[in-house]
Amino acid sequence: MLDIKYIRDNKESAMDGLRKKKCKADIGKLIDLDEKRRELIQRSEHLKAEQNEASKKIAKLFGAEKKDEIEKMSALKEKLSAIEDDLSGIQEEISELMRLIPNLPQDDVPEGKDEKDNVVLREVGDKTKFGFAPKDYLTIAQNLDIIDVDRQPIRLFKK
């Protein structure tokens, strides 16, 4: 999986790589969501800092002043909870988009329509030539009686 920082710093390169792989992932939306996420993290950390300061202040107060500060703290806590909920939703969206983005091809990889346009860089060794028609693995396994594809599956649970 690509790093969001790489995508943010190399937006054009990432978009070009996705175009080469014929991937339809929305980089613009991903970057917008990342900006919102970063902004919400900043706001959350700022509110947490305020909460810490207020906690220290409340410890030194008595009576009505303490009650007022505690009420302010509960409002601050609600704001923080709302921001964290938004942050969680945005993070989930970002994760979904990131899963759609494949690794990017190297710059020197030729572009093609499909796998027929792939270029063979090298072949190592000689290709094996058989004096008979080779069988696939399924036929061999059935002949050796190590796979039974004809048997009905066992039902463990009733429908």
Features of the shown structure:
159 residues; mainly alpha; Helix Hairpins; elongated; 5 helices; 59% helix
Task: Give an overview in words.
The chain is mainly alpha-helical and 159 residues long. It has a domain at 4-99: Serine-tRNA synthetase, tRNA binding domain (Helix Hairpins, Orthogonal Bundle), CATH 1.10.287. The chain has helices spanning 4-9, 11-20, 27-60, 63-99, 137-143. The longest helix is centred in the middle third of the chain and has 37 residues, at 63-99.
Low-confidence segments, given as residue ranges, are none
Query: Overall 3D geometry?
Result: elongated
Q: Could you tell me how far the N terminus lies from the C terminus, measured between alpha carbons in angstroms?
A: 39 Å
Average pLDDT value? Answer: 89
CATH architecture of the domain at 4-99: Orthogonal Bundle
Helix content: 55-70%
> Briefly, what CATH class of the domain at 4-99?
Mainly Alpha
**H/E order of the elements?**
HHHHH
Largest sheet: none
Helix/strand class: mainly alpha
Question: Quick one: CATH superfamily of the domain at 4-99?
Answer: Serine-tRNA synthetase, tRNA binding domain
Number of strands: 0
CATH topology of the domain at 4-99: Helix Hairpins
Helix count?
Answer: 5
Strand-residue fraction? under 5%
- CA-based gyration radius: 29 Å
